[in-house]
């Protein structure tokens, strides 16, 4: 008992430090968003809702939030629709292609965002496909950005549940491939897929460099909006950042709850 | 009944340019339990997967009953399979797992439930019908897997090392259970294992495989008492495998033409004390036997059998003796006399012959 307690003390201290490190900036931002005057004191000298109210009075803020939301949802949905069958086929039927895929999915990291953006603009601003500044170009780019998360997430889920064996077992019991996939593979990899999609969604929601360069003048996402208003007032920017953070937190919570509910129904 | 129920003809399979199965021929009668026994990498599991249709053939034909399976997809082969890793569906309960195959075949719910209850009773898991696989022990999971594959009444049951992930005691119980169920249902079964004890206790017939070939095929008794090659002799038991020179040092001249010989460990008698020697002298049939001197190197107690490792004429021999309570006298390194019976010396064929 005593040894256990001794062993746990440093662990707790470490966790506490980590939490402070991670949460203190968030807390500071939060306070700054509601502070009236905060110059020479440790804590703000007064409080105000001025910044938050100003933010919600600006139609562009809600529009930007909505734009970000649907662009990210479409991109993640599209990625799921393409990657789920693709990764399944590669993992189960074409394992020889895996090394090729592994190389492919890290490419988005090998190319710096700025280079990728300039390349995309040059390619699609003229010629047969003119997409410059449109949401199509952005969704295409987003698809590439989240490729690694989706690929790894789906692949790991498939390997964890030994999808190949489950599929063989189902087929020998008389199931057609599609039916086998829907009845024994999908329900088992679903929790893993939920996590991948959530991660991808958050990454896209916070994406700025690529978005600003590709469609900065045409489409106002929440990040682009934030960038435009940072110069105006730090307080306002803090309020926007915090609202955006709470928004993401809420979406994540709902999504995880949904995943748990589904999983709970499945496993009793 | 048709003499051959399952017939494999010239089965060939290559992985890359490496042959894994080399013209395997095998016929199995209805209701027979045949074991494919061999070291890992001998192709036994691949052969099983070829029969199930999970691996494509590079040559040969498979016939089950009146039907040629070679080009049928797995779902139409009416072959059941139990995997080493159980492969139960984690999102379904025990009952749903068992009913899965029936559901895929469009059997009505009421009939499915009846059949499921029957099978739960067969594998003795009636109280687990609502449990999920991850809440069952390994042995229980494997019984569910067995019930699941039997539910659709397959024409042939394939068991791919079904017991190797279980611990020794459960393994022994479950293997008896599998044999009983197989006999009761008269289910034609192919059992893959690398454990020769498992093969000897379970099977109607054993096929020993090595390098993608069946090297010997026969009843457990004949396989054990008359191994054909050195590989089988080494694999099936703790046979003493002797070169021609070694055999003639022990047995003298006139031992036959073979290049190598096998000697069963229980066919050599150890003379431990006076009563052993008197017994030997009294029996007239022992005239042809030879007695030589040896030194006990070490002793292993296997339970009902005691295994002695003895050096005699520069050869290390394994000798088994029933543990009858008085045998354990000898210390390590003590001298001992061995009685050898030339009629027990088996001639082995050359490998690959």
Automatic annotation (TrEMBL), chain A:
Keywords: Cell inner membrane, Cell membrane, Membrane, Transmembrane, Transmembrane helix, Transport. It is a multi-pass membrane protein. The keyword Lipid biosynthesis does not apply. PROSITE patterns: ABC_TM1 (PS50928). InterPro entries: MetI-like (IPR000515), MetI-like_sf (IPR035906). It comes from the Bacteria. Its main location: membrane. Pfam families: BPD_transp_1. Residues 65-255 form the ABC transmembrane type-1 domain. GO terms for biological process: transmembrane transport. It is found in: Cell inner membrane; Cell membrane. One of its GO terms (cellular component) is plasma membrane. The keyword Cell membrane applies. The chain crosses the membrane at residues 12-35, 68-94, 106-125, 131-151, 180-202, 208-227, 239-258. Belongs to the binding-protein-dependent transport system permease family. PANTHER family: INNER MEMBRANE ABC TRANSPORTER PERMEASE PROTEIN YDCV. This is ABC transporter permease subunit. It comes from Cohnella endophytica.
From TrEMBL, chain B:
The keyword RNA-binding does not apply. One of its GO terms (molecular function) is ATP hydrolysis activity. It catalyses: a quaternary ammonium(out) + ATP + H2O = a quaternary ammonium(in) + ADP + phosphate + H(+). Pfam families: ABC_tran, TOBE_2. Its EC number is 7.6.2.9. InterPro entries: AAA+_ATPase, ABC_SmlMolc_Importer, ABC_transporter-like_ATP-bd, ABC_transporter-like_CS, P-loop_NTPase, Transp-assoc_OB_typ2. One of its GO terms (cellular component) is ATP-binding cassette (ABC) transporter complex. Residues 6-236 form the ABC transporter domain. Keywords: ATP-binding, Nucleotide-binding, Transport. The complex is composed of two ATP-binding proteins (OpuCA), two transmembrane proteins (OpuCB and OpuCD) and a solute-binding protein (OpuCC). This is Carnitine transport ATP-binding protein OpuCA. It comes from Cohnella endophytica.
